[in-house]
Amino acid sequence: MPKIYKPGKVAVVLQGRFAGKKVVVIKQYDEGTREHPFPHAIVAGIEREPRKVTKGMGAKKLAQRSKVKPFVKAFNYHHLLPTRYALELEGLKGTVSPETLREPSQKEDAKKVVKKLFEERYASGKSRYFFQALRF
């Protein structure tokens, strides 16, 4: 079976609390691990997308509406749908690891770093597809 979920691949979550949300694969485990004995991927996703901004908005309102709420989680491959899009993982690879997901304080720190990286990427105007909510 070919590897579909490579690092940087954008996918959509199909089931669970984050159903319909977009994620980017950080690390994949095709054989599984001791904690998760099934094929899974460690992902960082967007729980709440940035809201629409217009030209007439001030800097304060623009900053408020450009916020992103991320999440970091391990997902079974059966709960993900790959897309044709990819995202560069400049700072994400070292931030999130299986050890990070075990400890709650480390997970919160990782989410803060992911939030900063996602907001920088959104402000630069790259990867517009990733930061738009799915409409269906």
UniProtKB/TrEMBL annotation:
Coiled coil: none annotated. GO terms for molecular function: structural constituent of ribosome. Keywords: Ribonucleoprotein, Ribosomal protein. GO terms for cellular component: ribonucleoprotein complex; ribosome. One of its GO terms (biological process) is translation. It comes from the Eukaryota. InterPro entries: Ribosomal_eL27, Ribosomal_eL27_KOW, Ribosomal_eL27_sf, Translation_prot_SH3-like_sf. Belongs to the eukaryotic ribosomal protein eL27 family. This is 60S ribosomal protein L27.
